[in-house]
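Quick question: what would this complex look like in 3D?
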Amino acid sequence: MSGNEGEEEIVFEIGVVVPKKGENQGDESSLDCVDVLVDEFKKRGLIVERVLGLQNEFIKLAAPLEILGKAAAELQFRKQTHIGMDLPFEWDEVEAFVRQPDGSLFTWCERFRCYNHIIYWIVNTGKSVVELKYDCREINWIPGEPLLRKLESEGVVKEVFPLHDENKRKKLLRSWALNWWDFTTQPIDEIYLYYGVKIAIYFAFLGKYTRWMLFPATLGLTMQLVDFGSMQLLVLPFFFICLISWAVLFFQFWKRKNSALLARWQINHLAGAESEYKFFQMEQSSLQSPAELMKKRGADKMKEKAFFQREEWFRWLMRFRNDAVIILSIICLQLPFELAYAHLYEVIGSDFLKFCLTAVYLLAIQSFTRMGGKISVKLVKCENNENVEYRARSLVYKVFGLYFMQSYIGIFYHALLHRNLMTLRQVLIQRLIMYEVLENLMENSIPYLTYSFKKFRAIRNKRKREQGSSTGKGQTIPRVEKEYLKPAYAASIGRELEDGLFDDFLELVLQFGMIMMFACAFPLAFAFATLNNLTEIRTDALKLLAMMRRPTPRADATIGAWLNIFQFLIVMSICTNSILLVCLYDQDGKWKVSPGLAAILIMEHVLLFIKFGFSRIVPEEPAWVRAARMKNAAQAADMCSKQLLRSISGDEKIFSQMKKST
Amino acid sequence: MSGNEGEEEIVFEIGVVVPKKGENQGDESSLDCVDVLVDEFKKRGLIVERVLGLQNEFIKLAAPLEILGKAAAELQFRKQTHIGMDLPFEWDEVEAFVRQPDGSLFTWCERFRCYNHIIYWIVNTGKSVVELKYDCREINWIPGEPLLRKLESEGVVKEVFPLHDENKRKKLLRSWALNWWDFTTQPIDEIYLYYGVKIAIYFAFLGKYTRWMLFPATLGLTMQLVDFGSMQLLVLPFFFICLISWAVLFFQFWKRKNSALLARWQINHLAGAESEYKFFQMEQSSLQSPAELMKKRGADKMKEKAFFQREEWFRWLMRFRNDAVIILSIICLQLPFELAYAHLYEVIGSDFLKFCLTAVYLLAIQSFTRMGGKISVKLVKCENNENVEYRARSLVYKVFGLYFMQSYIGIFYHALLHRNLMTLRQVLIQRLIMYEVLENLMENSIPYLTYSFKKFRAIRNKRKREQGSSTGKGQTIPRVEKEYLKPAYAASIGRELEDGLFDDFLELVLQFGMIMMFACAFPLAFAFATLNNLTEIRTDALKLLAMMRRPTPRADATIGAWLNIFQFLIVMSICTNSILLVCLYDQDGKWKVSPGLAAILIMEHVLLFIKFGFSRIVPEEPAWVRAARMKNAAQAADMCSKQLLRSISGDEKIFSQMKKST
């Protein structure tokens, strides 16, 4: 849309938003802080472009590879080398490191970290305070203070956000978001390169999930369409067993797929673990010589062990307390509320009252969820978890508890207490179709509407001001300002810990629970879900590419907590479906134990066995991935062992002599 | 007993058994093969002592540290260094490696591997065949042929077996086997040093298991002794819940204990994985230069991946087929047999007939088990598992299936079909007390009796011969011959894959199943089991120290397959106890569903949830162990990264130039 084709080589990836300079600025006696910031950016080697928007000024930043590489070396990134081993990055030895599939050296996630490192570590290296000016205020830049943080806290820099790469975005739009006829196939590698690993993993999961979903969908359709005659009674249990096996196998194969993807992208599986290690390293940051290390080792070992043990127990206690708080409050507060709603809904006759009740209920759960989310975030924050991803997981579990109650307790009520299968089916259809369609519409239209509104307001404001000052500048909004006006990819809950993936996964999980837990009451649900997921792939892609700012990349390489939630839902669905079957076959309403009930109970146990047995049969990691990992680990030590040994044993000799002499 | 105190420094650890030289040997024209063997041992630097026994001659071998070290370097052992990282052993850099708690460099397991390497790699380095003589036979030692193997196949060397270290053995006897008043505490570190990791882990497990067992034992005793009045009905379910939680927590804490022990003994957890890596390394054994590696990398990667994928699927199929064979044959052959026995036992009135029946049954299952074991070993052998420990595990699962049916199906029959709780209790008491006491007696007396018988026969033979030749040599048997006459620590089943630990673990597992699965019928069982395990610790120790040869050490560092079997038994016991409770509370014999049955069903599900949920709450590895592991992994790469990088990137440059020029 912006026709500057010559710019192809420079890709601006970070945008900094500052207010437009007031026009009544004449005196040049002290330094304008924005000019200083731009100068400092340039000094660090960044390529800077200043763009004047309608309301704000934008500083677009790009970095030559060398600048990024040096930042990476300072950050001590571990990157895979050509011998297959991860080593800390060095700019001088850049040839040793494996490049990305598209030929670039760093992934988007790494580039983003480098940019952050560069721009947030512009400190005042002089010895005196630098006086900066902004509008009419004075800002004192104290020695050693990072400039960008200072300006952010003073309100001069409004935001720092990642920019879309217009060429790649358009390419992806064509090859991915608008490519409806590809059904579940997606250009995962390009998504990975553009959005980073976490989002790519989400879409890979969504694709594989939808592909596998075709099996139960056809099974459900057949059950609906074909009349099995006298076999009808046996068809449902058969469907049930197929379904559970399907779900268990799917998640096992997903784990394999996940680790295969990570191996393809050369991501070390234990990347998360590494950050945990740094947690203790602070104390011994000066580790260089083996001799020093060894001296510390003996004394430190016991101290370290005690430290970790204390830490572990404390963490465990905090987590236990928090979980207890959450679980108790869900059971004591939310459960009665939901049951009251379900009961009133069942009891009330008039349709109008029902409608009113539902409206009140919807408003109530909105605020309930928001409150619950806030409490969860607060609890998670005092949990002292090792790193951000652990915290995000802890939050996911807690918030899912809320949503679980909210989404299913009413359905349980209809299914179990009133044994009203017709109402159950109605509720399911209603939820599945209405809810999903509405969700999809909402999540795509709301960002677009907010964006349009913001744009409209910006133009209107501009016009108003122009009428005042009557300078005849062009009306076009620069692209970077358009991006700034787009909403960020953030979670509806706990913005600090999770991004928009939270909502997308939540939708998927709730759908999975809905179709699995009540599968025996409504086998057709899988067909609906398949259709929904097929559209979900493209609409989510469209949302990410066209309606949102580029999300900040995240390093988590698995679907994390959600996987455990899926597993939990499988177990739940074994139990609920067993109960449903009992209800279906026990028509006269008395809990009479016939051979039928015994059979269902036995089947339930067999299924639980399948659930927990199958995961042992299929290994989580393909053999080739495992072998490659092993090889890398072994090579790591082999390559340099001799020389290392010499230095250790040399130092050890000196050390033991020292010991003797003292 | 042998009073040579001056020998303290030389510890003979390997014994080689050769026949006594016939006395009619006069001609010295060609070489006697035993003399050659001894000479070769001496040439390799081993310390050799020849002892003339009553029936055989014994060559006792000891090795100075340097000889072992050089063998270790040839074998490329990975050992932990002082910086905490595992590196291949080098004799010249011996100072760099961590020593054992008792100051020795190598563990018993490592020493044993070194000895084996030394003595089995005595090859004919010359170019011509060496003609050896034994009695009157000629043995041709072909160039490149290992001498010991040759002599073994010719029947000259009867056996090679590890020798007890008399000092340490006596010390352990005092501090461990005869130390009854220590109850569950044992000198685990010394056991580890003397017997190696696998046996030490067994005893650590047994100790911790017995210690934890005190809790359910006291609970069971209280239930038996105290009369709860009207609460009686609630006590049993409470006991049940406590029990399952106890079992789940115990195994979770055992895993922690296990990894803590391994960290203390400086054993790398992934040692098993390493051997798997070597599996593919054969093809690229010449890896030295990074450049070579890289050239291969591109082409090899795809081939390797395909190879591993094929391999994995093939292995999976084989395993699946074998498991299917085993399961089907157990269900189709063993189950009807066991049920027939249980039914006949129930039906027959006369005590004499019952006794006959039991005798026939016992004989039948003896041969049944032996046959099953043989089939299992054969099946496992064609499974193409990665290494020996995998095979052993596979065998354990298969054989356990047999024993499971054998031990429990009769009890199930009494409990479930006949709902005869009195018979059930009788059978349980009978099995627990009689069986365990008998087992203990048998496993200790049989080795002793066989040993005594062999010794007696040896002395008698000697006497007979002496009467013939009438030379007046002393009647004392040398110690090494006594050890040779002792039985080896071998499994009753599948001698090639498992050692005596198999039987010990099997006993433990069967006991666990018995007391857990029928806990609600007989809570007192835990007290019996505790007493039994307390004696088991000492009698097993006594057996190992006094009645068996020193076992060949094994490298497996966990209780492996048995852990999974324990877990399986916990799940089984949730189900069986639920059924037992239903039987107990449903006295009139009709399967009527009262609120009681519903309550039990709910409880069962809660317990299953506990089982699978609890294992997530308690991490398997203590935080300090994990942190130490992480640190080692990170240091590995950090220490030598710069220099490595230079060599990789240098080679890479050359490589890319080469590519361009071609």
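Answer marked as accepted. Residues 9-163 of chain B form one domain.
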